[in-house]
Amino acid sequence: MTNTQARNTKVMNRFDLTQRLVAKLKDEAVIGGIGNTNFDLWAAGHRPQNFYMLGSMGLAFPIALGVALAQPNRRVFALEGDGSLLMQLGCLSTIATLAPKNLTMVVMDNGIYQITGAQPTPAAGPADIVGLALASGLANSSWAADEDDFERLIEQSKQASGPSLIGVRIDDKPGTGTTRRDPVQIRERFMSGMGVRQLL
User: Fold this and answer.
1) Local confidence band at 57 (pLDDT 50, 70, 90 cut-offs)
2) pLDDT digits over 5-25, tens only?
3) Does the pTM exceed 0.85?
4) Mean pLDDT taken over the chain
5) What phi and psi, each to the nearest 5 degrees, are found at residue 160?
6) How far is CA 78 from each of CA 8, 54, 198, rounded to the nearest angstrom?
7) pLDDT tops 80 at residue 120
């Protein structure tokens, strides 16, 4: 699908999509990228298996890769914005090379750096996020046409033989809620959720 075709997919709401994902979860890990992506994850259903990134723009997919490799029997989801991913495109080829079958990446693409003033990202122009993923070797990459297709692609990714990337076109609504900004608490709760540390 070209970027022109991506713009013909339905423009959806990030919080609605995040709620749809969280409603399907049991003990899966979810890594939320910085800003609105993780604000919506927090508001959609706080869980110890959620990791909320603070300030580390572009690292949701690399962190999720580490979790997926460390816990190959656990499904790992990563939620990232288009601007953040564009800062760390090299991670896509690394993920394709290591090929963890338990990793699903969701790119929330509204074509802007929303938190810093809505400046346009390259995804607002010629850059096609899904096309970049496919060219990096991530064969299970596609745009979600609408909410039902998003849910179908999430379910399909759970059965995939390698990592999956789902691109979704979203609106520019602000994030819902605000993550509690305590890095130690976030880390400790997540490690407890991963079964590698007991909460004190």
Assistant:
1) confident
2) 555 689 999 999 999 999 999
3) yes
4) 88
5) -70, 155
6) 24, 14, 24
7) no
**Residue given tokens 């074509």 in the structure block:** 111
Quote the tokens at residue 140: 């299970």
Q: Which amino acid is at 184?
A: V
Give the span between the Cα atoms of 91 and 199, in whole angstroms: 31
> How far does CA 161 lie from the centroid of its chain?
19
| Whether 59 contacts 102, CB under 8 Å | no
Short-list 98, 42, 33, 41, CA closest to 63: 33
Has residue 3 got a pLDDT over 60? no
Four-residue CA torsion sign, 102, 7, 170, 53: positive
Which residues are paired to 81 by β-bridges?
108
Cα angle at 63 between 178 and 200, to 5 degrees? 65
78-103: b (≥16 Cβ within 10 Å) or e: bbbbbbbbbebeebbeebbeeebbbb
Query: How many residues would you count in the chain?
Result: 200
Q: Tell how strand 140-143 and strand 164-169 pair up.
A: parallel
> Is the model's pLDDT at 52 over the cut of 60?
yes
Nearest Cα to Cα of residue 21 among 151, 108, 114: 151
What are the φ/ψ torsions at residue 168 (nearest 5 degrees)? -130, 135
